[in-house]
Amino acid sequence: METGKHELRRSMGVWTGISVVIGTVIGSGIFFKQGQVLETAGGTNAGLAAWLIGGLITLAGGLTVSEVGSRIPETGGIYVYMKKLYGEFVGFLTGWTQVAIYAPAIIASVTAYFSQLFADFFGIPMQWVPVIGIITLILITTMNSFDNRIASAFQVTTTSIKLIPIAALIIFGMFFGKADALGQTVAHVTSTASGNFGLAILATLFAYDGWATLANLGGELKNPSKNLPRAIIFGLLIVILAYVGVTYGIYQAVPANQIVALDSQVPYTVAKQAFGQVGGKLLAIGILVSMAGTLNGKMLAFPRMVYAMADEGVLPRFLKRINKAKEPIAALWTTAGLAMILIVISGADWLSDMAVFVIWLFYAATFCGVFILRVQDRKNGVEQDATLFKVPLYPLVPIIAIGGALFVLINTLIASFSMVLISFVFVAIGIPVYYYYQVKNK
User: Membrane-crossing residues (predicted)?
Assistant: First the structure.
């Protein structure tokens, strides 16, 4: 194991970047959130609009971060952006939040969902789910410990496979469905929130989350100033088309009230209508592959941020160790270890909800960074490099991104005030850690 000043290998091309975006965003949400979004929206027209608007807000955020990322093409993603925009303290809290809260909780949540579906598919008792999760994380982390071209190839492969069940749901619903995708309303079933379009959009934004993890790989992308924006933009466009297409296909195949009643079983119902019991099994396999790809994408991206912080001396030095394959081996296994602990002792769903809220705080600040960077350019009399990506329709797109972030934060604050308070406590724990390393590094 080597601990010198090595650089991570720039071996990832734009297709790998696109695969990371698609792979980390498309997991279980598109398959299991249809009933919740539809009931909350109150009808199929509003449900489709919620998925589309959520996607457009996410795309606005992706375009905005792409300009920031193209000008700061370094490993560490939002942590590095926040540090350069707002200083060491805010940058550290950003990284701390991702390292200590966001990354382990999201990885634990995805692993738990995968393990539950895996156990159900093979008839394994549910008490073995934590064991399956730990084994899964060990396998994924081991793969990521080798040359990143191996994990990259796995990411491209799983992303390609996961599009198969999505395409099947879209095609069957559009051409063989017997319901009417448009104009249906949902009778009051279980939720007093029925008809709340804002909360429906909020639910889709959670399903779209994960795209920003690609920014953590800025130091390993070939020609990151061009490939980072391309990967984020094209990846998100594919995700939006997939989400809206699957939603339309499901609405066309199953009546609205039945979708709400079936909830997470909707995809299985559509698959069985199309292909019988075999279709349900094939769909389950497709979802398992989808979630494995999502987990790999997160393990590919999150440890790079841990590595970047350790390399700068604000986390324990052992976390910057890289192996002969030039992979951040210590950061990889530490991130996996924290996630394994959460799988065993914590409620991953609650933690992931908290993590998503916290990360949107930093998304909002990163979106504002575009204005800061452009003002600095004008103040210094420096023209932007013509080779760098510039967000289109400036300043409208960044304003939409900021508005979307505020929408997430305000609605979460209203709906889950206690969770918001607890999330701030976890962030605040990072303050003494920051000052400890400030004193230590003097």
Answer: 12-32, 48-68, 89-114, 126-146, 153-177, 197-219, 231-254, 274-295, 329-348, 354-373, 393-414, 420-437
